[in-house]
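Our preliminary data section would be incomplete without showing what the modeling component actually yields. Below, a chain of 206 amino acids is followed by its predicted structure, encoded as tokens that our downstream tools consume directly.
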Amino acid sequence: MAKVAVYNMEGKEVEKIDLSDAVFGVEINEHLVHMAVVQQLANNRQGTQKAKTRSEVSGGGRKPWRQKGTGHARQGSTRSPQWTGGGVVFAPVPRDYSFKLNKKEKRAALKSALTSRLQAEKLIVVDALKFDEIKTKNFANVMKNLKVEKGLVVLAENDANVVLSAKNMADVDTTLVNQINVYDIMKGGTIVLTKDAAKKIEEVYA
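Predicted structure:
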């Protein structure tokens, strides 16, 4: 098991805990991590782009000039793709870009992502995050104490004071254990886990 330090909100080490190798010490599967990121980005696409083909552009029903004798190249319609105002050859149409990953693949990708953050020394565990009021300055001070400029804070349970205090932080996001995903973990920065969140992740994904 990996032994990691636990810090308080002042950035001081208060204890050490063991993180399960079943979640934070797996063999990293880069392919699954890549697929999980691609899937999330693909599933977020609206797929609503549309352009008209030559059959959908209005007009162009009359042959612009006779077939022979004009000196021009033969033309059948003013809505052919080579004409200004004509249709698009392979026009994009609304489509669904999403695809499926199996549950086991998703879990393996998430474990690989968490393991990679730990190995890169970009995973910090704090004993707790508690604020008496909603104040961005307080949250910013905690991140400064932990030396985190960009990252993802994972909470075990929804805490409005913490979430709303972090809302105006440009480079820091918050999420819950049941909402973590590979893309948010891998897009850079440091993962900050509360002690309760770390235990909950081990219970859910071990």
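The chain has a mean pLDDT of 93. DSSP finds seven helices and six strands in the chain. Preliminary results of this kind motivate Aim 1 of the renewal.
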